Queue: 4 jobs
Job 1
Amino acid sequence: MADAPPGTPYHRIARTVRYRWWVPPVALVILVALVFLLQVLVVNIAGLVALLAGSPPEGTAIFGWVVPDFAVTLILTAMMIPAALLTARFVQRRRMGSLVSVEGRLRGRWLLICLGLALCGVAASLVYHFVLNEAVTPGQPFLGPFEGAGTFAIAVVVIALFMPFQAAGEEIALRGFLMQAVGSYGAGPDEAGGGRALDRFLRGPVLAILVSGGVFALLHNYDMLGKADVAVFGLAIAWLTWYTGGIEAAIALHVLHNALGMGLSAYHGTLADAGTGAADLANLAGTVIEVGVYTGAVVLAARWLGLRRTVPGTEPAEPPAAPSA
């Protein structure tokens, strides 16, 4: 199974020795088809469970209750994980771990560090919204009405169980597979035509970051300002994925960002509308603050730790023997 050569940046990992220009679009079509088939399977299984439970599906509602229906929505997005991993392994003929980082695996210690740093970014956004609320509507409660302890507790359990996989699915598909598919174009410096301006641009990270962030925004059913909000978020974590050589930083912020948003929706009893809606300039500013604080913290931490950003070289198993006299 082919691997990217040592020194390859994250967005170029898909350009292995077996790379051909037609492989990325074919792999993308197969990925979309696999996601669709897996989602159909999940919907059918959920419908069968609902039928056995005595509540046959009606329209788009499978269980007729927002919390289990929301769980199904999260699982549907999580199906991007096996689809992307299988496509990388059997279509692109490369290690599945290459979708995750330049080291071919999930860097667990770095992920935990990023989760701690993501807390700082989310906290900064919360403080901003709290101060804004006190300045604009003094005396008004920061949180809206409470839905109720029973439903809220069950919703929190569902979010904790399934939302991390939902966020990871989007990251593996968009910051992993798609970003690497776009980054695989453009001849390398040692290849024919590698010195042309177009090839130099294609093998750079800019186009891969823009496509990843743009598609991420388009997949969200928001108004234009809401899509701009999501685009800021998506572009920031796409840049961090390239800069850190893996999707751990993107997963960490995505998980905590979604945990806050979905948790508030559960608190207010608006989980059914969690995937749609509109944004305003205040929310957009909060997102800018969140990703700004987080990006700065991740860059400093990555530099301090000397985080690997390119594919490592092959180290000899044993040091070479000293030459004989």
Job 2
Amino acid sequence: MSKRIALVEDDQALRENYISALTKQGYEVLPYANRKSAEQAFAEKLPDLAIIDIGLEDEIDGGFAVCQQLRSLSKTLPIIFFTARDNDYDTICGLRMGADDYLTKDISLPHLLARIAALFRRTELLGLPQQQSDTVQTGELTMDAKRMTVSWKGQPIELTVTEFWMLHAIAKYSGHVKSRQQLMDESKMVVDDTTITSHIKRIRKKFMQIDTQFDCVETVYGMGYRWKNC
């Protein structure tokens, strides 16, 4: 059964180009030209992955609203912002709203397809039989790589697909510093430092919502990040 990709893009020419490209890869593409039509469809049935432009018709931030709706309906559905707006503010806003990736439209089609495939590979792990090696247990942290679940002090933490794999990369070798490049390799990301920093900040914030004293994700300046034994 082919994966269903929602494409929320108001530019008709671009929309048709990406429908053609994604269809050739075997995906079923569900195109939407504006926020309203997308939100109505998502309220009835969720896609397997969503690619969203930020500016939609006369709504300059319409894509952000679509992302928020999707994230409220599913904590793990992969969401990619795909936009012509290339600035730190929009990148940070998009990731804070729970997107797994933020790509600009000047990237190559193979790059986009690789990101989509990587996100699908990660979500498909949820359905595989569990093995002991899939579980990370360090202190009060428990991570299950197959079910993509995280708990801290017995309480569940809701992470996006990308947030999960970034934390997994840090926590599975507790005490070891992971460079930004290693985090990108683990989560199949090709992003700038600002994007990685935004993901790390969001991960910390989610832990601190249930434990205000949480400080186990340590920034090692000039080197990267590590999980402290705490």
Job 3
Amino acid sequence: MTKINSYWLMKSEPDVYSWDDLVAEGEGTWDGVRNYTARLNLRAMQVGDEVFFYHSNIGVEIVGIAVISQEGFQDPTDETGRWTSVKVKPVRKLKRPVTLKEIKADPALAEMELLTKFRLSVSKVTEAEWNHVLALAGG
């Protein structure tokens, strides 16, 4: 079994690319990210790292868990060579989604980058935050 090195959260607008789209594909390329901090996060990801899949704009909730299946490579949508992509595979849908409203109301998640760096599309999640969100989702 692959050791999980880090936990992450990746945002996607579900009308553009949803959890169901990832499940249907079986493996997706996370591309189109044009933020330097998010790029650093993508470059730091390792195969086996787990990711919360977050629906932004519509739903605004964590809906599933994915795993990094291929580490950083040049984003195929970028002709400049500056931007990075990773590949992700779905692991499982959460028993119940955890909404942004719930996360904001929970003191244990007050420092989560989802809240403190809310414009960031790819953010770090601590192990304590990861476990707390999983508990909120029903395990």
Job 4
Amino acid sequence: MPKLKPNTIFPTPQEEAAINAGIAADPDAHEWTEDDFKKARPAHEVLPALIGARAAGQMLERRGRPKLETTKVHLNLRLDADVVEAFKAGGPGWQTRMNDALKAWVRTHGAA
């Protein structure tokens, strides 16, 4: 179980009972059986028939930032404070500028 935030409020036993009674009374909220899982289909297969191809396409299109052709590697790196401050002093984009400076060094010096 994930770590909970401070001051997390849990339902009382009475509230929990009321929630469970509501779930039990809802015909659409039953526990899935093996048969239900066998009948299930991915959204991209069923949505076009339900809401139309155009609307389904809009719902299913990938959101967020597009994937880059060349991804970057996440790592922890210890640098001198004055070097970091010099790059940060240039404002936003300092990490990109630092990456570009390192690329230029590798181009001129080769892989060490």
